[in-house]
Amino acid sequence: MKAIVMYASITGNNEEIAEFVQKELNSRGIDTDLEDLFDGDYQKASEKDLIIVSPYTYDKGSIPSEMIDFFEDLPNQNWENKKFIVIGSGDRFYGNDFGAAIDKFDQQLEKTGAQHLTESIKIHTRINQEDKEFIINILNKTL
C-alpha cells in the first residue's frame, strides 16, 4: 500500500499532525509521502492507495486561500479505488464552525468516489497524547 499525507499549516499544528500520521503509516510498512497542500499535486495523490488530507480552518469556517484551488478541483478527480481520511486542527472557540474546513474537505473527497476509512477527525489546536492514541486506534482498526 502507498499513501500520501497532504497538509496545510500556518501555525505548525497540522504539519505536526501530518508528520505524526506519516510516521505511524511508515511504522506499518506503508510507503508514505508528505506534501504541503499548497502544492496540491493530484497526479501524486492519484498514484496512492490512501489519501490523508489535513487542512486547517480559517476564521469562521473558511477554506484558507492557499487550499482553494485544490479544494475546488477535488470533485474532478476519479479516485474510486482510493481510500481517504481527513484529519486536521481547529479551535473550539469558533463553536459550530470548529474544524468546518475539515468537514468541507471530507465532503469534497467523497465526490471523488474514494472510500472513507473513518469520519473526519478534528483536533483542538495542537495534537496531544490522547489525540495520538485515538489516531493510532483508528489506523489499527482501518488498515
Describe this structure in words.
It contains 5 helices and 6 strands; from the N terminus they run βαβαβαβαββα. It is α/β, with parallel strands linked by helices. It has a single domain, classed as Flavodoxin domain (Rossmann fold), CATH 3.40.50.360. Strands 1, 2, 3, 4, 5 and 6 form a 6-stranded parallel beta sheet that branches. Strand 1 (2-7), helix 1 (13-27) and strand 2 form a beta-alpha-beta unit. Helix 1 packs across helix 5 (129-142). The mean pLDDT is 93.
Give descriptors for this structure.
alpha/beta; globular; Rossmann fold; 5 helices; 143 residues
Short description:
By secondary structure, the chain is of the alpha/beta class. About 35% of the residues lie in helices and about 20% in strands. It starts with a strand and ends with a helix.
* Binned strand content: 15-25%
- Please tell me the CATH architecture by its name: 3-Layer(aba) Sandwich
Average pLDDT, all residues? 93
Q: Care to count the β-strands?
A: 6
Oligomer: single chain
Largest beta sheet, briefly?
6 strands, parallel
Radius of gyration: 14 Å
Question: Helical segment tally?
Answer: 5
Q: Superfamily at the CATH H level?
A: Flavodoxin domain
Give the class-level CATH name: Alpha Beta
Instruction: Predict the CATH topology.
Output: Rossmann fold
The rough form would be described as: globular
Straight-line N-to-C gap: 10 Å
Report the structural category: alpha/beta
Uncertain ranges: none
Give the count of structural domains. Answer: 1
